[in-house]
Amino acid sequence: MKDATRAVRGGRSPGPDPRFVNPPVYHASTVLFEDLESLKGTAKLRYGDGVSYAVHGTPGTYAFEEALAELEGGHRTRICSAGAQALSGPLLACLAAGDHVLIPDAVYGNTRDFAAGMLARFGVSVEFYDPLIGGGIRALIRPETKVVYTESPGSQTFDVQDIPAIAEEAHKAGALVFMDNTWASPLYFKPFEHGVDVSIQAVTKYIAGHGDLVMGAVTATEAAYPQIQKGWYHLGLSGSPDDTYLALRGLRTIHVRLPRHWESGIALGDWLRARDEVEEVLHPAMPHDPGHAIWKRDFRGAGGLFAFWMAEGLSSAAQISAFCNRLELFGMGFSWGSYQSMLMPVNPRRTASPWPRPGQPKGQLVRVYAGLEDVDDLKADLDAAFAAARAA
Ligand SMILES: *Cc1c(COP(=O)(O)O)cnc(C)c1O
């Protein structure tokens, strides 16, 4: 089966009435058992193998998890109530005091702060590495390295990581490879074909797709899954029934929405790159980008999130304010992945690799998210904002 069919058909084990296409929403805490013998069987059930108590999942949870696991190409998926939990949960599940974890320098801000904060406080040795290190990660791996975390392309700076090369070295040392796969979604990067053991999704973004919920999901290989599931049980991670319903509804059309985000992102990237106000565009799916070769080798498509460098002469605080405040169609705010376009200035934090890299522009970096509006309207909005910046 192809992805479009998987997105439509996945997680469709029949509910109580198979005539209805969508699973019912169970608002539940308690689940009653038919007899004492089946209640006594719950030690097995709490590991996510059936309905026992609503924290561990309702039929709606399992339908969504099943559909997502199929799309990601992993053994099983578990959900939680934010993307932020989908990165902290598996790290807590797989690390202990004395272990060493490698985190890419271009990682999502919350992952950086969680690792440097709580993980370090619990006695885990946290080391950040240059996201472009590839097989050179070998030199950083120690006997106590348990997890090599990846995120590709990296948040804000869109560095494409050589996941197969990193995975090869990590596996030689017996370490697990985690990947935050939110940018590409399960459609455009197949983590388990490239050596990833644990794939992280901020469901909030493309899977939910409509800006109306926060949720996270973690998919694992058969070998890594028991440790993840145990962590889910210990931490009590779960997702709300209504949000899970909406997330599954979003997933059903992801293959229709994503190509448009990809196409509009490229159209805006090309248009921006031709402007005098723009120094350079950071977008791995554009041929000029340093990450393009690996993107082309490993990815099946691109999301609508990228960045551009405003020219240095247009990057004063007043000019950037004038630019952002003139925009009408591009919203400003955190998050992305819904139907609406967004834009905001970003200031990447790096501790293990230079940024900007030598030879890169020095103006303001601006992150753009191409939504589902008409792309000519989006260009006109940007055009007016550039005029406002020039006049400031
Ligand atoms: C948004 C995001 C997250 C966190 O998701 P939330 O649901 O907002 O907590 C994690 N990773 C990446 C790459 C993200 O963009």
From TrEMBL:
SUPFAM superfamilies, per the entry: PLP-dependent transferases
Coiled-coil positions: none
Pfam families: Cys_Met_Meta_PP
InterPro entries (alphabetical): Cys/Met-Metab_PyrdxlP-dep_enz, Cys_b_lyase_bac, PyrdxlP-dep_Trfase, PyrdxlP-dep_Trfase_major, PyrdxlP-dep_Trfase_small
Catalytic activity: L,L-cystathionine + H2O = L-homocysteine + pyruvate + NH4(+)
Positions of the UniProt region annotated as Disordered: 1-20
Entry keyword set: Lyase, Pyridoxal phosphate
Cofactor(s) needed by this chain: pyridoxal 5'-phosphate
Family matches, as PANTHER family: CYSTATHIONINE BETA-LYASE-RELATED
Family: Belongs to the trans-sulfuration enzymes family.
Record's protein name: Cystathionine beta-lyase
